Automatic annotation (TrEMBL), chain A:
Protein's UniProt keywords contain Cell wall biogenesis/degradation: no
Lineage summary: Eukaryota, Metazoa, Chordata, Craniata, Vertebrata
Name the UniProt record assigns to this protein: TAFII28-like protein domain-containing protein
Family indicated by similarity: Belongs to the TAF11 family.
Residues covered by the TAFII28-like protein domain: 98-183
GO cellular component labels: nucleus
Automatic annotation (TrEMBL), chain B:
Subunit structure: Component of the TFIID basal transcription factor complex, composed of TATA-box-binding protein TBP, and a number of TBP-associated factors (TAFs), including TAF1, TAF2, TAF3, TAF4, TAF5, TAF6, TAF7, TAF8, TAF9, TAF10, TAF11, TAF12 and TAF13. Interacts with TBP, and more strongly with TAF10 and TAF11.
Entry-linked InterPro entries: Histone-fold, TFIID_TAF13
Keyword field: Nucleus, Transcription, Transcription regulation
Name of the protein in its database record: Transcription initiation factor TFIID subunit 13
Residue ranges with Acidic residues bias: 1-16
Coiled-coil region: none
C-alpha cells in the first residue's frame, strides 16, 4: 500500500539550513513537508546542535535567513550542498503535490485524517506532568505528541502487514495488534525497561 | 506475570475499563479514543476501527509516553524532562528523530512569523 506515512530521513542533513518555504497549515503541529528548510537557531536547543552535528565543522559565511546575527551561529555547510538539498526539497514538494492532486476521494479523506489527527496537547501534558511531578515546557509536549504519533503509526503499519500476511481484512483486530507489538519488540522498537536482564552472574 | 501490553486471553472478553481487570491500567478513563480512531484511519485501518484495537493502541501509547518520560528523567538533568533528553533518547530511530526535528523547527518558525506579524501590525 502506498505509504505517505513514511517520512524520508536524510542521514547527512545537518541542522543548518536556510528558510525556504513557509506554508502555514491549519494545524500548526503538522508541518507541510517533512523536509522544511529551516535555520535551527533556537538558543535553547544549543545542546541539540552539538549532539547532532554530523558534518565536518566548516565555518562558512552565514546565510542568516531572517537577518538575525545572534552570537550563537550554526556551522554552515558549503553553498553547493545547500543548493542541492533545496533543489531536492523542491522536487519532493512538487512530487507530493502531483501525488495529492491525483488522489481519489477516499484517499484524500484518509490523507486528511493522517495529516490532521494528533494527540491533544492538554492530555499529553497532563500525563507527563503526572509522571514527573513537575511542569514541563511546551516543546516537550510538542515533541512527545509527535513521536507518539509516529509510534502509533509504526504499530498500525506493522499490524496491517500482519493482517495482510494472515489473509485477514481490515479493520484490525486485537490479535493483529498484539502480533505487531511482538514483532516490534523483537526489533527493539518498543521501549521496555521493566525486564532487567542480568548479563553475568 | 503477563507483560503490560500483551493482554493475553482473558482481556479480550472484558470490556475496556468497565469493570473487571483489564490487566494494564485498571479503570483508567480513555484519554485518546476519538483522536486514535482518526489516526488509525489515517494510517491505513478501516474507517471504523474496532474499539478493542483502539484500546490496545491507547495503552501502548500511554506506556510509550511513560517509558520515555521515565528515561528522560533519568538522563540529563535528573527529575526533569527536557527536549534535549527526548531527542537524545530518540537519536537511534531515524523516523522519530526526523519528526521531532521538523516539529521543533516548524514551531520556531511559526513563532517567529507570528511575532513578526504582530510587530508589523503594531507598527502600522
Amino acid at each position: 500500500m502506498a505509504d505517505p506515512a513514511r517520512i524520508k530521513t536524510d542521514s547527512t542533513s545537518a541542522i543548518s539550513l536556510t528558510i525556504k518555504h513557509l506554508k502555514k497549515e491549519d494545524n500548526e503541529d503538522m508541518p507541510v513537508t517533512s523536509n522544511a528548510d529551516i535555520e535551527f537557531k533556537d538558543p535553547a536547543s544549543q545542546s541539540l546542535k552539538h549532539e547532532h552535528k554530523q558534518d565536518g565543522d566548516e565555518e562558512d559565511d552565514d546565510e542568516g535567513a531572517s537577518g538575525q546575527s545572534a552570537s550563537k551561529k550554526l556551522k554552515v555547510e558549503p553553498e553547493k550542498k545547500k543548493e542541492k538539498r533545496q533543489k531536492v526539497d523542491e522536487d519532493e514538494i512538487q512530487k507530493m503535490q502531483v501525488l495529492v492532486s491525483s488522489f481519489s476521494e477516499e484517499q484524500l479523506n484518509r490523507y486528511e485524517m493522517y495529516r490532521r489527527s494528533a494527540f491533544p496537547k492538554a492530555a499529553i501534558k497532563r500525563l507527563i506532568q503526572s509522571i514527573t511531578g513537575s511542569s514541563v515546557s511546551q516543546n516537550v509536549v510538542i515533541a512527545m505528541s509527535g513521536i507518539s504519533k509516529v509510534f502509533a503509526g509504526e504499530i498500525v503499519e506493522e499490524a496491517l502487514d500482519v493482517c495482510e500476511k494472515w489473509g485477514d481484512t481490515p479493520p484490525l483486530q486485537p490479535k493483529h495488534m498484539r502480533e505487531a507489538v511482538r514483532r516490534l519488540k523483537s526489533r527493539e522498537q518498543i521501549p521496555n525497561t521493566k525486564h532487567k536482564q542480568i548479563l553475568f552472574h | 506475570m503477563a507483560e503490560e501490553e500483551d493482554e493475553t486471553g482473558f482481556e479480550e472478553d472484558l470490556d475496556d475499563g468497565a469493570g473487571g481487570a483489564d490487566g494494564s491500567h485498571g479503570k483508567r478513563k480513555r484519554l485518546f479514543s476519538k483522536e486514535l480512531r482518526c489516526m488509525m484511519y489515517g494510517f491505513g485501518d478501516d474507517q471504523n476501527p474496532y474499539t478493542e484495537s483502539v484500546d490496545i493502541l491507547e495503552d501502548l501509547v500511554i506506556e510509550f509516553v511513560t517509558e520515555m518520560t521515565h528515561k528522560a528523567m533519568s538522563i540529563g538533568r535528573q527529575g526533569r524532562v527536557q527536549v534535549e533528553d527526548i531527542v537524545f533518547l530518540i537519536r537511534k530511530d531515524p523516523r522519530k528523530f526526523a519528526r521531532v526535528k521538523d516539529l521543533l523547527t516548524m514551531n520556531e518558525e511559526l513563532k517567529r512569523a507570528r511575532k513578526a506579524f504582530d510587530e508589523a501590525n503594531y507598527g502600522s
